[in-house]
Structures are given as structure tokens and as C-alpha cells.
Specification:
The structure is a homodimer of 236-residue chains. The first copy, chain A, is of the alpha+beta class. Chain A has eight helices and eleven strands. The mean pLDDT of chain A is 90.
Chain lengths: 236, 236
């Protein structure tokens, strides 16, 4: 980590450990500079990072304030680290239904930006949160990037493995959400009746160089589908 | 607009007008400096803004690339400008069901961070996209911020009015999504059967100083609920 990232992490930790609430005021810029013994530009970069992550907001002429999610049980949509990280503190398990090397579907090939004759790993899992059915997940990994998977790996955190084991550098992702009615087969896996509400999240994960490597379709149990997004005024 | 914001807007316009696609390469930093005749730090700031907005991605040692949403018909979740802006190019209409000054519900008071004896504007509308039922919207506005509304205003874009008419400065927002089954009254307004899938989006809009001023609960017709989010590698 670079210095400003370290400082951002320390401020983040401070906010969490002291259970600061949205609107709580942080020390002024000069005090932070003195405390961390760094230049104004380093603190400014650290604060910009925290603002981008939705941890603080800055009010010109007034100060730096804490920003916090108010509701429990909602999963952040902007995280990019796979489930395990998103669901810290809950017990997450998986039942692997299918794992195989195959040619991509047309849809997967399109989203992964590869040809229909390329190899992919197809992984189908049902995931459970503290024993409750959370979602049905189908993932298509470009095999030229994710070169190896086995049943043991896909029973645990695939993202953990591909980052640490395969050295894959995960960049940005595109997330599409929509609602619908469960198809018979989806309903079966989620222990719901057909036509029950379905909350679909499709994600295209890219490498830092922009190449898509994972197209993932997740169907959530509607009672478990709670998501949270923070927006910044920069988007206006 | 400050210089770097102007340049960001120009690059954004260039990408859209030329229909550049995700992965298309933009000129290198030095070429952009020369073209806009500005310093490296100005271009760097413009590019950082575009990256934050999901318009480009930068690959160290490789260049600057276009980032674009691939699918049509999905609404960006990170926009903060109200519906009218999000749905540019579609014909959006509203039917006002209720507009009144009242005391907040417990839930609204909590989310607006006000007391139960404060006044709010309550607005209930059904919104239509090209004539199709899009959503049922209930909004609670803190009346000490949104001091005046009338039927004419709430038939159009409320956000447009409160920004231009009342001079309200809109800051960040917190967005909560969940799924469920439509209650009888919601179903009626959306012309769907009870228990049909419901896609709920609750948003707490804040002023730039962090004060919440609008708590909005929107129930989407499930066939119209398509949303899009771009994440950045910064979140990892």
C-alpha cells in the first residue's frame, strides 16, 4: 500500500472501531496532517479515496464528516471482492451442482468477449448464508485467465483462489440487476415455488487491463436480496 | 465548471458522439495535454473524474480506454439527479395520487433525521415510461428544506424544481434495494396482481452539507426494473 492508502485505511479503522455515526465530524485537515505527519497533498488524496468509498463526505468551509450505512443486513453492491468478503461475519457455504470445462453459451461468449470455440469453466452453485438458501449462482470463467479450478476450490471462495493462487488482478466490473419470476429449475434450487419473485444480479468482472474474465449470473432468494449503494455528489 | 471538469465533459462528449466502445483506446496523456493545452495535473484530474464516473479506465503502462455500458434499457443506479435525467430520451409522465403537508411517519422521521412533530411534504405518484406503468413512488420531503410544492410541480420533475426553483444543493444519497411480493394496494397502482414480484428502491437524498431532505420509496413494476452499476477497482 502507498502512504495515502495506509492513512485512508487507518482513518477507516478509526471510524469503525469507535463506531462513529453518519454526520460525526472528523478532525480538520491541518490536524490530520500533523497527526499523520504527512503533506497536505497526501492527506487530500487519502480523503478523496475515503470519499470515493463512501466512508466520509467533505463540506467546503465546514469540515470532514463520517458517512455510514444506516441499515444492517444490506450487502454493498459496489464491492468487487466476491461474496466471502461482502458477507464478513456470516457463515457462507456452497453446494456445487456443476463444474466443468466447456464451450461458452452465446450469451457467455458475448459477455466475456471471446469466441464460441474458446474454453470456459462453468460453475453452478447454491450458496447458503448461516444455513439459509441465499442464491443460485452460475459463473462462466474464461479458461485462458482462470486456468484451473477443481471441486475443492469452487466449494470455497473462488475469488480468493484466483487472486492468491493464480495471481489474477481483478479490476472493474459491470453489474446488471433486474427482477422477474423464478423459473421452475431456479425455484427448485432455492426451495421456493415457481413464479416466486426473483432478484437477478449479473456481473461482468474484468481484469485491471479491461479484459472480462468472469460472467456471473446470480439469482437471489427474494427474502435475502437486500442491497446497498452509496452515491456521491460527483455523479450529479 | 472548473477547467478539468470542462475537459472531462468534452472527452465524455467525444466518446458518445463517436460511439466509441468499451476497450477503445484514447490518445495518450501527452497528446491530451497538447490538444487541450493544459498541464499534466489538469488532465490527470479530468481523467480521474471520468474514471470515477465509469466513462474510462486507465491501465498503467498501457493507456486510457473507453468504458461503456453494454446493454440498452438499464437505468444507472449511481445517478443522483432524479428520474427525468436518468431516463433521457424516454417520455416520462406522472399521475399524482396524493400531495399533502403532514407529520412524518416514524420510518420517514428516522430516515430524514427529524422529529415526529416536524412538517413534511408527502407525495405519492404513479410514473409511466412511454405510457407503460413504471413505478409507484412515495416521497417524504423535509418541509424546512423543500419549502413549497404544488400539484403542477409534482406532476413534472420535482428535482428540477427544487434545484432550480428553490436553490437546493443536492449532495450524496444512500440507496437500498430489496425484492418482495406486491401488496394489494401497490399491485392495484401498478396494474399487476397481488403477490407479483416487487422491486423496491429506497433512497435517502442528502444536501451537500449532509442533511437528509428526501426519503423516497419506489416500487417498480418488475418488468421495468432494470438497473446498472459500474464498480471501480478502487473499491477492492
Amino acid at each position: 500500500m502507498i502512504k495515502y492508502q495506509q492513512i485512508a485505511a487507518e482513518i477507516d479503522k478509526h471510524i469503525k472501531e469507535n463506531a462513529l455515526q453518519q454526520g460525526d465530524k472528523l478532525p480538520v485537515l491541518e490536524a490530520l496532517m500533523a497527526y499523520f505527519n504527512v503533506s497536505k497533498s497526501t492527506i487530500t488524496k487519502a480523503l478523496a479515496l475515503l470519499e470515493k468509498k463512501g466512508v466520509i463526505f467533505q463540506v467546503r468551509g465546514s469540515g470532514i464528516f463520517v458517512r455510514r450505512q444506516k441499515r444492517k443486513g444490506y450487502r454493498g453492491l459496489l464491492s468487487n471482492q466476491g461474496f466471502k468478503k461482502d458477507f464478513e461475519g456470516v457463515h457462507l457455504t456452497s453446494k456445487v451442482i456443476e463444474l466443468e470445462v466447456m464451450k461458452p453459451t452465446k450469451e457467455a461468449a458475448h459477455n466475456l468477449n471471446i469466441g464460441l470455440d474458446n474454453d470456459i469453466y462453468y460453475v453452478k452453485r447454491v450458496r447458503y448464508m448461516n444455513g439459509q438458501t441465499l442464491c443460485l449462482e452460475e459463473s462462466y470463467y474464461n479458461k485462458s485467465v482462470v486456468t484451473y479450478l477443481n471441486k475443492e476450490i469452487v466449494s470455497e471462495s473462488i475469488f480468493d483462489y484466483i487472486q492468491k493462487g493464480l495471481g489474477v488482478k481483478i479490476g472493474f466490473s459491470d453489474v446488471y440487476l433486474h427482477a422477474g419470476k423464478l423459473k421452475h429449475e431456479e425455484a427448485k434450487h432455492l426451495c421456493l415455488e415457481s413464479e416466486a419473485p426473483a432478484f437477478y444480479v449479473e456481473t461482468i468482472f474484468h481484469l485491471t487491463n479491461g479484459q472480462p474474465f468472469d460472467f456471473s449470473k446470480v439469482t437471489y432468494h427474494y427474502e435475502q436480496s437486500q442491497f446497498f449503494v452509496q452515491t456521491n455528489s460527483h455523479f450529479s
